[in-house]
Amino acid sequence: MTKVKKIIAEQKTLVFLLLLVILMGIISPFFLTGDNIVNVLVQSSIYGIMACGMTFAIIGGDFDLSVGSTMALSGLVAILCEPYVGQVPAMLLALLTAVAVGLVNGFLVAKCGISSFIVTIGTSYIFKGIALKISSGDPIASSNPWFGRLGNDKILGIPYLVIIMVLLVLITHYVLTATRFGRNIYTIGGNMEVAHNSGIRTAFYKTSIFVLSAFTAGTAGILNASKLNTASAVQGDNAALSVITGVVIGGTSLIGGVGSIGKSMIGILIFSVITNALDLMGVFSYYQTGIRGLMLIVIIGMEAYARYRES
To answer: What transmembrane ranges does the database entry give (predicted)?
Structure first.
């Protein structure tokens, strides 16, 4: 019995996910259908890809609130550049654009010493403005049929989006747990001063986590534009809130130094299951936005209370 309690305590987010799935299967006869399960996985894939980078940022003691604007801008670049350079080069340009966003954020945080909260809010507005300018505020549809297939086709019944998410999860999990780079991210998030005194190049790692966060946001932006066959400056408006909520639900500490890619994915799945359940119950989207905000406040409050109890 003690072992069971220990497993439940260590894997509480996974247990909660399983209980949530069982509950929703009882409440709605449509929830556990094959089509809906695939739908939940596809919904999870975009935010799951972004969560891979966001987990690094939060473990490293920072936030990236510009991921939504990076997502929108990358999607637009991938579609707008295609007629001039071809689809694959256009997608590479979109990823380079995302990396440039990450370098700007990283430079301002690591070299200029500005709070990541302030920097990424500011750059979020800047890059959202650029996205609105290059699109004239209108949705831009892709004219390349191949581009739309990337976000909608399947292999053996598994959507490309889900396969790409799983590959990124495996790669980032390996980097975070089995490399010096990952260990140093934990050290920096746990105690910046100790990391600096240990000879860790904190500015390099701080910049790197913003580049990684932007890269995954750019990847998500391209895939989301492909899925919809359209890019828009408003795509990703709620992405930062949604991704951070999922990552924190998974147990990544907002004060840094604690977290994992696997648990972040469980958090994203919990978030997606709740969103899907609200859709099935006919809850309006603007109520859902409020519920997401409430979830984030409750989770942060619970984490703060747990730290208080431990102190």
So the answer is: 12-31, 37-58, 91-110, 117-135, 155-176, 209-226, 238-258, 265-284
